[in-house]
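Running low. Invent one:
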Amino acid sequence: IELLIEGELKRRRIPYKKQVLIEMISMVDFLLPSQIIIQCDGEYWHGKKIVKNRDWNQDFLLNFKGYEVFRLKESEILKSPTKSISRIMRKINV
């Protein structure tokens, strides 16, 4: 699922860094300019309660530090990586 999102970011020429450790809080899937984070969540792993709680805590800390976090579900990405990225771009007005 990360490769699908990476392909869409490349296709749109959106600059990004992949697998970035942010302030010892979280290893994020993609870091875009203006402190935008994209996390690609596999539904098996990220559907577990303990992982959901960890994700929520990480997102809270990252938001507090000024990052905007977008979580994309596996089913959403598989259905259409293009629509997944379009939704984020509309929210950040790019």
Helices lie at 2-11, 43-46, 49-64, 74-79, 81-91.
